[in-house]
Amino acid sequence: MPHVSTAIGRALGAGFAALAAVRRPHPIHPHGVQLHGSLRRTGCALATGVPWIDEADAAAVPVLARASRSAGLPAPLPDVIGLAVRFDGDDGPADLELASTGRGWPARFWLLMHRSPSRAHLGSLFPYRSPSGPVLLAARTRTPADLPTTPAAVGERLEAEPWRLQLLVARPRGAWHAFAELELTRGPGPLDPLVRFDAGRHPLPGTQQYEWALRARQPSYDRVQRTTRR
């Protein structure tokens, strides 16, 4: 597994760097919209051993987020939907990065395309290491049920009403359990300013990335950021 994940990481890193050379500043998820909002933890019926997931907290924390289309295909074609969320944890910024995947086993481990973010099950794809074993995180829309296709149109819609989502956790083969509520809106400012999210370097409180997952994903992040800083 270490050799396989390292080879995958190197290949992805080289591919993403090549894309970054011709499509800046985002070689993937090139079209997005910046959002702001809040996250409130509601507690979880699945005991993961991670207090940030398991325990409720009535105090909502502010978040910065970006909704995007992965390949940048023209609307109305479907695309892989991305959602990145950042908040301040006890040890610094914490990033959650999700993309549209299947909901059940084994489809939760592959990417699926959608037209509307409202229709997408947004999953972490890679599992997190918790004290009780591997867990996956995800988000699903509560309202509205008909967000438009393009990031610009999504931003315009979210100026008028919030995007409300539930955050979910599951064992790799298990049922999904809600543990938090996320509310996002579009405020004033540029549509899509450059903000770098990195779930590998900014872990969620009480969680860790598996070494094989870091080897597979981190080279692409590092190569892209070096390339786009030039």
- What's the CATH class, please? Mainly Beta
Strand elements, count: 10
User: What percent of the residues sit in helical stretches (DSSP H or I)?
Assistant: 10-25%
> Tell me about the biggest sheet?
8 strands, antiparallel, barrel
Mean pLDDT over all positions: 85
The first-to-last residue Cα distance is 33 Å
Given as residue ranges, the uncertain stretches (5+ residues, pLDDT < 50) are 1-24
The arrangement of helices and strands along the chain is: HEHEEEEEEHEEEH
What gross morphology would you assign? globular
**So how many helices?**
4
The CATH superfamily turns out to be Catalase core domain
- Gyration radius from CA atoms, angstroms: 17 Å
- From the 3D coordinates, which CATH architecture would you assign? Beta Barrel
Strand order, main sheet: write it out.
1-2-3-4-5-7-8-9
Find the structural class using helix and strand composition.
alpha+beta
How many domains? The number is 1
Strand content: 35-45%
**Which fold name corresponds to the CATH topology?**
Catalase HpII,  Chain A, domain 1
